[in-house]
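Tutorial sheet, problem 5. The two components below are modelled jointly, 575 residues in total.
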Amino acid sequence: MSRHGHTLSPAGRAAVGAKYLSLVVASVVTLLPLLVIFMAAMKTERERATSGPLDPPHDWFNMHNFAFAFTQGGMLTALVNTAIILVVSVTGTVFIGSMTAYAIDRFRFRLRGLVLWAFLLASVVPPITTQVATFQIINGMGLFNTRLAPIALYLGTDILSIMIFVQFMRSIPVSLDEAARIDGASTFRIYRTIILPLLKPAIATVVIIKGVFVYNDFYVPFLYMPSPDLGVISTSLFRFKGPYSAHWEIICAGTVLVILPTLAVFLFLQRFIYNGLTMGATK
Amino acid sequence: MSDQRRWVARLTPWFFLAVPLAFLVTFTYVPAANLVAYSFTKWDGFSPAKQFVGLDNYAQLFTRPDLFRVFFVCLYYLAAAAVQVGLSLYFATVLSFNVRFRNFFKGVLFFPYLVNGVAIGFIFLYFFQPGGTLDSVLRLAGVHGQHLWLGDPDLVNWSLAGVSVWRYTGLSFVLFLGAIQSIPAELYEAAEIDGANRWHQFRHLILPGIRPTLSLTVILCVSGSLSVFEIPFIMTGGANGSTTFVIQALKLAFQFNKVGLASAAALVLLLLVLLVTWVQRRIAPDEGVTAL
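Model answer (structure tokens):
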């Protein structure tokens, strides 16, 4: 078709038109729900009550609702809690995932098949199905209502990162390990000085994918950290529902505040995100 | 090698695996085993006594209509998943050829997948309000009236399933796009020389080329439809007949203190997911979740 520079028949032109039409319609359907939220966040209370959702706000730079949502909605506490949990669990995931991948990919040992199988089977279990029982374990360990609860769960149930590391590790030549071994390096030294630095692209991928996941996760903090002091981004936003249920401009402002960091990360790191998802999904 | 060195060599992989395995066992396998144990008991979650009741919890699950109806709710999400796969296949195919503003369209279609679930819940609570965005758009198209998109038991699950399409189409789309782009370009050229049109290319080149990804996506969709939680919980709390399997299990456990019954429900769900995965592995043994 067009990419080969053939002149188009009327039917071909109609097909191209339909193609673009479908893309535009899909974009509108995707963006409209977001756009009306942005507009509502910049309306005053009365304006929101009297105007339709599709009407633009009078003042496109009305920041009042954002300031209110940020201060009254406990967003600062939420940001701090999310940041702590995110940094610890992402760092931990990088080490746990890469160590597991190193052991599985570079060693042949008894029970290796069983270990592999155990991780694989776990990857098909949706974690939310086992929360009824997981709750008892977290509670029994005394982690309920502490930041350690989500950290432990994020570290403990992430098979995707392990898969990404294993895949990437296969592309690192074993001859590098062997050369270092002949020079007398210990296994741990090989892991730390050869494998880990070469895994950098995979680490970047895991950090981004895991970071987005932790930032967005709702049920783990909701179930395990009900204390308002321990609110994270998701649960703090969720608490807008009660007190502001008649004040949609505040809820919309809170929602926009939560989406903006995601948008920034997406715009700057698009390629890593796409690659990471495809890497995790295919062999 | 001395005995000592052989032992060290033998233990090395376990040194790396100790922490990951401890986490795996503690937070996946022990809970799964406990789930089985709890499911045969009547337990409130905190008292020391667990009364053994045999298969009574399972009998309740399959005979009490109020408990059994959650099975039907997941059918709406399965239908949504089919729409999602269809749409993402179409857009992945279209955008794998030369299109103006390709990256813009790709970004727009994908972005919802990254948005926080609670934010999505609020976005669509606002969207579906009576007289809200959806009603206003419909009025522009000539359809008047206010609808209780989330209040009417006949509409609510369609509305919520629609949100799920909005949220997840981007993910399967990007996965398909990645898979299509890994098909060698020479194959398309050869096909065009042979006079294959776009449909033939899709049917005989793209579809076979992305089969592993397609099969993985179908599994993700099916197990996702069975374990829907966030969107209906945030938006309706399970009201008006929108309670899903997971909402029900968590409510039974944490609101009504029926841990035994909740465990049985969770276990049935878990077995369903495992069954679906197993069937998929039988049909297509070399494809799907075997990424390791």
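Marking note: The first helix of chain A runs from residue 10 to 41. Full credit if you identified this.
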